[in-house]
Design a protein that fits this description.
This protein has about 375 residues and is α/β, with parallel strands linked by helices. It contains eleven helices and 19 strands.
Length: about 375
Amino acid sequence: MVVDLAAVRHNVGLLSRSAAESGAATMVVVKADGYGHGAPDIARVALQSGATWLGVCTLDEALALRGNGIDAPVLSWLHLPHEDFAPAVAADVDLSVSSLAHLDAVLDGARRAGRRARVHMKVDTGLSRNGCTDDDWPDLVDAAAKAAASGLCEVVSVWSHLAFAEVAHHPVTDAQAARLDAAWRHARDRGLTPMRHLANSAATMARPDLHYDLVRPGIAVYGLDPFGRPVDESPLRPAMTLRARVFNVKRVRAGEGVSYGHEFTTTRDTTLALVPLGYGDGVPRRMNFGGRMRVWLAGRSRPVVGRVCMDQVVVDCGPDGGAEVREGDVAVLFGPGDGGAPTAQEWADELGTIHYEVVTGVQSRRITRTVIGENV
């Protein structure tokens, strides 16, 4: 795998400039190891390129950033209420709370750390996942206001998450914004002075009216278009290329079965190339159902034949492939799409999923991550 930090730098610059035009700061989301791209590297480049905040899901992810010497503001937002928050408070990690139980646990961590906790109160505005309900919001705000008055916490923000941001002007998005505004006003009426944040990648790009004080782009940072546009129609640059070197090249005769179950049989004498990546490395087994998977190899798009195995796929290089393909040649499974090579968006379309799942699925310890573009 290759991760192009120059692409990340381009994407963060684009997103943060858009936010700045609205007077908003930018939080780059680096959860799930930077969507499979490597969180520490992405975080450093993001902070060099216009972002001033970082976002993660778990306490471990936040503390790992601190362990890598990253001292920018970090928000962590998905926790069990009985977790130990003292180390995170001590490390100056901002923490999201969605209930009285979560708030109590964070305040307990603040007492034990001997330090004020920085709290972001999440309200459920219509996604029905994490976040406080409208009915419970007044009690949570009251408790947070009392804790803030006592010096145990600072209420940094009121925030929420969008359900339909990929449809720029969906009515649910406007309803969610109205509910966030009402929750924010309630906190203000209680004497708190929190900021607001709501916009994900899609809203950062298409809804400047929802930028508020802070935007939280995730997938767009990595060059994957939140609206599903092809790479040649998007201003973003994909950062991840999944590739491997050809392990073996062989000539086989017509009538030979290929891979498990012989779902493919050669119809002519041909050359097959073995590429050592499979479903154990994040290449979904169903990717070649129907025989439509292709790789870019030796200057051409070539079909994968037979089932995807745990460790490998087989590429049909054609009758003349032996003269074109050699062991050690690089096969691109997906990447920026240069010259017609496959993209993560094309994989997602083939699989009936989203490109998030494609890139975050490449998490095998067997894959070596090569970082380029650091000094661009």
